[in-house]
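Re: that chain you flagged

S.,

Sorry for the slow reply, it's been a week of failed gels. I finally had a moment to sit down with the sequence you sent. For the record, here it is as I used it:
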Amino acid sequence: MDVKTQVKLLVQQVVEAYLKEKMDPKKDAPIAILLGYHSSNPMTVLEAVTPLLDTYNVTWIITKEWLPLQGEMKGLSYKLLEDLSKQEMAALIDQSSILVIPQASYGLLSKLALTVDDEAALWVAIQYQLLGKPIVIANNGVEPNVYQQIHAPHTVQERIQAYIRSIQTDQVKWVPLSKLVKTVDEQYAAYLDKQSLILAKHIERAFQEGLNEIEVPGKSRVTPSAKDLARELKIQIKTIDSSKGGTL
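Prediction finished late last night. Pasting the structure tokens below so you have them in one place:
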């Protein structure tokens, strides 16, 4: 291959890479992947979420148990959950759009269903919920398998299913690990299209909290009464780009 042909191919590759990045609206979308629970097959978990690293701006939130596998995280930055203050965790949550939990536990399932935040990982998940941000959890290792369904007491199975129904009602996506990436893509698209409704009571609450502005997604609908009250109380309603994280 002569020099001219090599240069032509190189330019073509650069242009294609540039266009692909420009045409992919998710490329800069910030999401968080939480590795806070024990896995008997950690490499399987990491392999399942690898496609997300090529599509989204990922921040890992990990516990010390996962530190030996940090080399498998494609060199991306990570936050050690045990070392984060609540202020640091809150800032990270505010900056990301979706929380992905590729490895769950019965404790996570039950406490999330009951809104119990007695551990850091649960506190993080509940904060995402309170901000109306999507949570996608892989159910592998927690959803009863066929043998457990055959042998486990009905009361235990029903309790687990009740917790699953509860978090699903709360709009947490509980899916097999094999469907994790597809579900994240769907939830990200839904998150961008979400229309929050801003009511007068929200403006009143902001005033009570001493705020002079509130941030809402660009597609939010503000009721006339909310606009009037905001004007009266001198509270600015500021729109933000939800694709870059931000608070809903």
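What I noticed first: The longest helix spans residues 3-23.

Talk soon,
D.
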